[in-house]
Amino acid sequence: MNKVSVVTTLMRVVLGIVFLVHGISKLQMGLANVEAWFSSIGIPGFMAYGAAMLELAGGVLLIIGFGTRTVSLLFALMMVGAVVTVKWPAGLMGSDQMPGYELELGLFMIALYLSVSEAHAWSIDGVIAKKRAASIKS
After folding, report:
1. Across residues 69-94, what is the average pLDDT?
2. What are the C-alpha distances in Å from 95 to residues 20, 85, 92, 100?
3. What is the pLDDT of residue 119?
4. Rounded to 5 degrees, what are φ and ψ at 23?
5. Which run of H or of E encompasses 129?
6. What is the Rg, in whole angstroms, of the alpha carbon atoms belonging to the chain?
7. pLDDT band at 135, cuts 50/70/90?
8. Could you count the other beta carbons within 10 Å of the beta carbon of residue 12?
9. Separate counts of helices (H) and strands (E) for the chain
10. Which of 20, 80, 83, 124 has its CA 20 to 30 A from that of 106?
């Protein structure tokens, strides 16, 4: 395993943990409260449930390395949505009233990288890719 594989694996696992914790936080706040907050900022309330489920399930999937490209692309799109609908007015660094979108930008870039990177050994995706390659050779 080379350095790029190690760093990519760490990025995948850490991104998964970050989103999993955000999903758990939404559950702890109560999804009805998250739905009300989404509605108050002009986002359809039902999307709170989709965001929470994506964060929970997608976080776990990234941690184990299954469906990494698809989940990462969904997270990248989610971060674009967060910036455009909520964070853009505050700017990159934010203001006294609201944090900026620097975190979302960082998460977007990690997710974007993972959405185009190759499957690595320390993932279920990597195991599947290795088995496919072996079956093609035989």
Report:
1. 95
2. 27, 16, 9, 7
3. 85
4. -65, -45
5. helix 124-137
6. 17
7. confident
8. 27
9. 6, 0
10. 124
